[in-house]
Amino acid sequence: MTTEHASSLRPAAVLAAQRGWWRLLPLVALALLPLVAPPFWRSLTLEVLALAIFAMSLDVLIGYTGLVSFGHAAFLGFGAYAAAFTTERVSENLLVVLPICLASVALYAVVVGFLALRTSGISFLMLTLAFSQMLFGLAIRWSRVTGGSDGLSVARPHIGLGAWQVPLGPDLDLYYLVLAAFAASWWLLSRLVASPFGHTLRGIKENAQRMQALGYRTRRFELAAFVVAAVFAGLAGMLLAMHNRYVSPDTFAWTTSGQGIIMVIVGGAGTLVGPILGALLVHLLESVGSSATESWRLIMGVVFVLFVLFAPKGIIGILRRLRRSKESPRA
Amino acid sequence: MTLDTFVIQLTNGLVFSLLLFLIAAGLSLIFGLMDVVNLSHGAFYLLGAYVGLSITRWTGSFWLALLFSPLLVAVIGLVVERFLLRQLYRRGHLDQVLCTFGVGLILADVMRSVWGSYVESVAIPAPLDGQIVIGGLPFPVYRLAVIVFGLLIALGLWLLIERTLVGAMIRAGVNDAQMASALGINIPRLFALVFAGGTALAALGGVAASPILNIYQGLDSEILILALVVVVIGGLGTLQGAFWASLIVGMADVFGKALLPEFSVFVTYAIMAGVLLVRPQGLFRREQTRLA
After folding, report:
1. A166 and chain B: CB distance < 8 Å anywhere?
2. Is the Cβ pair B266, A304 closer than 8 Å?
C-alpha cells in the first residue's frame, strides 16, 4: 500500500516539476515579444493577457465552484471605473491606485455576492446578470459622475515610492506591467485551486449538500470564491482602462460577461490554461475578425454553440481526448 | 406630480407592464417546464418586431404582422428546440442556457445584417391611431387597446393552463416530467410546444410594442434583462408571479423615470434585491406546483 503510494507520488512530482518549467517558456516568449513584434500585435497581446486574467477569474466561479455568473463584467467595469476615479481624484501613483481599485471591487463583490448567493443555479445566473446590468444603467444615466455614454478618460499612472518615481511611459512599460500581473494572477490562482480551499470549492461544485453534511459552510466558501474572482476581474479591468486610457459603459454590457463565458467554455472550464486559450481565440476573432468581416459575432456565436453541443469541455477537453486516444493503443 | 400627469403615467405604466407580461410569461412558461432560462428570449422579441415591421411594409397591414410574425418566430423557436436544445436534454440545464445565449448572439447578428442598425418605428394602425378623452384627459387609443389585449392574453393563458387538457399536461410536466412521461404524455413534444409558444409570446410582444417603443439593435438585451427581473421577482415558472411582477416592474420603470431620472434603474433593482432578501424564491413560487 505504502510503496504503491510512494511510486505513484514520484512521477507526479516529477511531472509537476517538468510542467512548472514548461510553463515558464510562454512567459519568456511573451516577455521577448514586444522587442520583435510591431505595436499592433504588442497591444493585441496586452489585451489578450488582461482578458486572460478576466477569463481565469471567471473560471474560478464556473469551472471550479460551479457558480455560473452572467455578470462578471460588473467587476471588470468596476475596476476600470475605480481606476478612472482614483487617477483623477486621488493619485496617479499605481501603488495607491491598485489597492484602492482592488479593495473597492472586493467590497462591492461582498455585497453582490451576499445577495446573489442566497440563490443558486439559474437564479444566481440571473441575479449576477441583473446586478451588472444595474451598473451598466448607472454608468449611462448618472452622467454627472460617470460621464454617461461618453465614458471617462483614465490617466496613465506612475509608480512612486517617496522621492523614487518611475513614470509608466508609452506602451512598453504598461505591457510589462500587464505581463507581470498576468504571471502573478496565473501563479496565485493555480496555487489557489490546488490548495485545500480550491479542493473545497470543487467539492461544492460536485455536491454542495454533501459538503454541507461534512460540516463545510458552503455559502462562505462560495462568497470567498466570488470575491477572489471579482478582485482578479477588477485587476483586469483596471489594466485595460489604463491601456485604453478610457473607460466606457460598454465594459458593463452583458455581452462582455457573455464573452467571458465564451472564453471559459471554448477554452475549457475547470482549468486555468483553458480560459487563457479562450481569451486568445475570442479576442483574436474580435479584433482581427471584425476588420475582416462584418459578421464576426455570428461566427463567434456559431463556434460557441458548436462547442456547447459537441465539445463541452472546450479546447483543453479536445486536446486531452486526442492525447488519450494516442496513448491508449500502446498501453 | 399633478393628478393629470399621474393618471397619464399610470396608463403608460400599465401599457408597459402588460407588454412586459407578454414577454415574461413566455420566459416563465419555458422555465417552468424545461428548467431553462431562455437567454435568446430578447432576440426572439426583437425578431418578432423586425419581422412584423417587414410584413407591415410589404402588405401595408399591421394586423397581418400581428398574426403572422409570432407564427414565423414560433417556427424558428421550434427549429432551435428540435435541433439544438433537444440534443442537450441529457446534459445539465446550464448547457442549454449557454446554448440559448449562443443562439441569441447568432440571431442578433443576423438581424443586424438583415435590418441594419437604424432606429425603426411602426405607425399606429388605422382604427386605433386616435385619442379618446376620458374625464378631460386625452388617452391614445392604441395604448388602451394594448392594455385590453394584454389582459385578454393573460386571461387566455390562465384558462389554457388551468382549464384545458394541454394545460393539464403542461402542469403535470412541470410537477414531474418523468412521471408525466410514464403516464403516456409525450414530454419532448410538450417541450417543443411550450418553447415555440413562449417564443411566439415574445414575438407577439415585439409586434404589439413596435408602434410605442422604437425598434433598434440592442433592444433585445434590454428587454431580456427586464423580463429576467420580472421572473426573478415573481418567482421562476409561475404565471401569476409573472403577471404581478410585470405590474411592479412596469410601474417602477415608468414612475422611476419620471421622478428620479438618474436613478430609475436603481428603483427596479432595489425592488428585486429587496424581494430576494425576503423571499429568495420570488413572490409567487411555491415548492411543488410552480405554474399558474
Report:
1. no
2. no
**pLDDT tens digits for range B75-128:** 999 999 999 988 887 787 778 888 999 999 999 999 998 998 889 888 888 888
Average confidence (pLDDT) over A168-197? 86
Interface contact A122, partner B, CB < 8 A: yes
Residue ranges of domains in chain B, CATH in brackets: 3-278 (1.10.3470)
Name the H helices within chain B: 3-34, 41-59, 62-83, 93-115, 141-163, 165-175, 177-182, 187-209, 219-234, 239-259, 264-278
B123 CB near a chain A CB, below 8 Å?
A: no
The answer for A 57-116 residues in CB contact with B (under 8 A) is 68, 70, 115
The alpha carbon of residue A226 and the mean position of all alpha carbons in its chain are separated, in whole angstroms, by 12
Amino acid at A195: S
> Are the beta carbons of B221 and A141 separated by less than 8 Å?
no
Where chain B has pLDDT below 50, the residues are 288-292
For residue A233, what pLDDT is reported? Answer: 96
Whether A145 has its CB under 8 Å from any CB of chain B: the answer is no
> What three-state secondary structure class fits A215?
coil
- The ipTM is 0.82
The chain B residue lying nearest A312, using CA atoms, is B95
**pLDDT tops 60 at residue A83:** yes
Rounded to a whole number of angstroms, the distance between the first and last alpha carbons of chain A is: 23
Chain A interface mutation, best of B106, B107, B229, highest count of A Cβ atoms under 10 Å: B106
The shortest C-alpha distance from B13 to chain A (Å) reads: 20
Which cell numbers in the block locate residue B264? 430609475
Sequence-ordered list of residues with C-beta below 8 angstroms from that of B207, at least 6 positions apart, any chain: B48, B49, B52, B62, B65, B66, B69, B70
Cα(A285)–Cα(A271) distance, integer angstroms: 22
For residue A115, give how far its alpha carbon lies from the nearest alpha carbon of chain B (Å): 7
**Domain spans, chain A:** 38-253
Judged by phi (left if over 0) then psi (alpha if -120 to 50, else beta), residue B218 lies in left
Distance from CA of B135 to the nearest CA of A (A): 35
| Residue A16 pLDDT | 56
Contacts of B233 in chain A (CB under 8 A): none
Angle between helices B93-115 and B219-234 (to 10 degrees): 150
- The tens digit of pLDDT for each residue in A9-31 reads 455 555 555 556 666 778 888 88
